[in-house]
């Protein structure tokens, strides 16, 4: 998996177009404010199931990405296992970068 999306993720954080924290992310999924949810590959099974189930129910796209250390380093905050993107532009570009790295 390519790490190209991490730079864009850092930009989205600085632009305040992201939500951090499990409860805040779930709230944004339920309000349909979240356009894409990124979940770290080493997230615990309980948290992973909770987030993926909410995303599926509310039809919010989600992707499993690098481990929590890589994700946390990209946004400059420690111990983050999930991030919700609130901007459709950032979400679309990050989705295309992630899909491209899987295909390529």
TrEMBL record:
Pfam families: Ribosomal_L7Ae (PF01248). Coiled coil: none annotated. This is Ribosomal protein L7Ae-like RNA K-turn-binding protein. Residues 7-91 form the Ribosomal protein eL8/eL30/eS12/Gadd45 domain.
């Amino acid at each position: 998996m390519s790490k190209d999306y991490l730079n864009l993720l850092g930009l989205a954080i600085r632009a305040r177009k992201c939500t951090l924290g499990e409860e805040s992310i779930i709230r944004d999924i339920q309000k349909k404010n979240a356009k894409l949810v990124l979940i770290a590959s080493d997230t615990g099974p309980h948290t992973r199931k909770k987030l993926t189930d909410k995303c599926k129910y509310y039809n919010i796209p989600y992707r499993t990405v690098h481990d929590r250390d890589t994700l946390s380093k990209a946004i400059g905050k420690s111990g983050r296992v999930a991030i919700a993107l609130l901007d459709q532009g950032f979400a679309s570009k990050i989705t295309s970068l992630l899909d491209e790295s899987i295909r390529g």
